[in-house]
Amino acid sequence: MRCAERYGNTIMETIDDARWEQIEARRRDDTFRFGVRSTGIYCRSGCPSRTPVRRNVVAFPDAPEARAAGFRACKRCAPDDGAPDAEAVRTIERAAALLSSDDPPSLGDAARAVGLSRFHFQRLFRRITGVTPGEFARALRAERLRERLRAGARVSDAIYDAGFGSPSRVYGEGVLGMTPGSVRSGGRGEQIAYAIAPSSLGRVLVATSARGVCAIELGDDDDALVAELAASFPNAERTRDDGALAATLAQVVALVDDPAVPVDLTLDVRGTAFQRRVWNALRGLAPGEPATYGAIARAIGNPHAAQAVGAACAANRLAVAIPCHRVVREDGDAAGYRWGVARKRELLRREADARAERARRANVRSSTDEIDALSSDRPERRATRA
Ligand SMILES: [Zn+2]
């Protein structure tokens, strides 16, 4: 029987028989850490220290959780060192593979299959992937649903096939970021207006749906831009309307010319829950302060997802408004850009220049202040010198 108790802000588990056996036998086992309440120290199984009294022992999925509960690392077994994370990642990968199968187990069964309690499973899964197993399972169901809808299944059949209990869950949770009908139809029944104008980065296409700006594309050729829009919304009724979109287009062009300019655009953002988390993080990046894919992955609590972050950047349809151009490789290289890496480099250069210019002005201001301060000092200084 496992149970969990509250300890400060953290929940921890009393030790189960299998783990206790490992500890008593001093077998190295990196799948968990244990804390000793009487000493406030945590160890890995296999620690050469004296075996603690069992009732004082609590289990943690890993070292960070033990620290979060206020325990300190043992000096003898160095429970923070290397291996455990790799082990934990493998465990969670196995669980993720099970949940991704065609006939996924319940979360409880998945936890048991990888030898974790529901509680540890939950914590470890979240720490490694950034989402709870439940969220992960829901995202997979949404993905299956999307595939089935694209394959042309009837909406109600697809919903049940994908593992959702009822259509209201799908609509209610906003699983798809749009209604199932509109995914299947590639925008069928939607009216999308677009306009094209020149900018300092070439031609800009802006498209709006009833909900807001749904696409901003950059390119050299109007026909290619229109084709991009058609690929994104194949079944929508797409109409060019430069007049109606004049104001929006002007705002977007201003934004492309100077990404630091404040604009007030309502965006119709369409993507998976993960993509939207990445895009939200991007919108928090200041102009001139690019981040790496890894940093965005960490910022959304999903440190192993740098590649998925890259994919989400590549899936962005709203150039500059969702500033995926501010994400670069670890070595500072611009990496890829949906609208051409040359445009990305140019955007980054402009933003860096603008930032340097702001810093220069701020310096000028502060040195003017210093000069003022110095001149008011002067009589005193003279007095000291005299
Ligand atoms: Zn120890």
Key words describing this protein structure:
disordered N terminus, Double Stranded RNA Binding Domain, binds zinc ion, four-stranded mixed β-sheet, 386 residues, six-stranded mixed β-sheet, 12 strands
Commentary on this structure:
- Strands 1-2-5-3-4-6 form a six-stranded mixed beta sheet. A four-stranded mixed beta sheet has the order 9-8-7-10. Strands 11-12 form a two-stranded parallel ribbon.
- With 386 residues, it is an alpha/beta fold.
- The protein contains 15 helices and twelve strands.
- It is flat.
- It folds into four domains: 4-81, DNA Methylphosphotriester Repair Domain; 138-185; 191-257, 2-Layer Sandwich (Double Stranded RNA Binding Domain), CATH 3.30.160.70; 271-386, Orthogonal Bundle (Arc Repressor Mutant, subunit A), CATH 1.10.10.10.
- 47% of the residues lie in helices and 16% in strands.
- It binds zinc ion.
- Zinc ion binds at residues 43, 47, 49, 74, 76-77.
- Belongs to the MGMT family.
- Residues 92-139 form the HTH araC/xylS-type domain.
Write the layout of secondary structure elements.
Layout: E1 4-7, E2 10-14, H1 17-24, E3 29-36, E4 41-45, E5 57-60, H2 63-68, E6 72-73, H3 84-100, H4 107-113, H5 118-129, H6 133-150, H7 155-161, H8 167-172, H9 180-185, E7 191-199, E8 202-209, E9 212-219, H10 222-232, E10 237-240, H11 246-257, H12 273-283, E11 291-292, H13 293-299, H14 306-315, E12 327-328, H15 341-385
Parallel strand pairs: 4-6, 7-10, 11-12
Antiparallel strand pairs: 1-2, 2-5, 3-4, 3-5, 7-8, 8-9
Helix pairs in contact: 4-5, 6-7, 12-14, 13-14
The chain binds zinc ion (ZN).
Zinc ion is lined by residues 43, 47, 49, 74, 76-77.
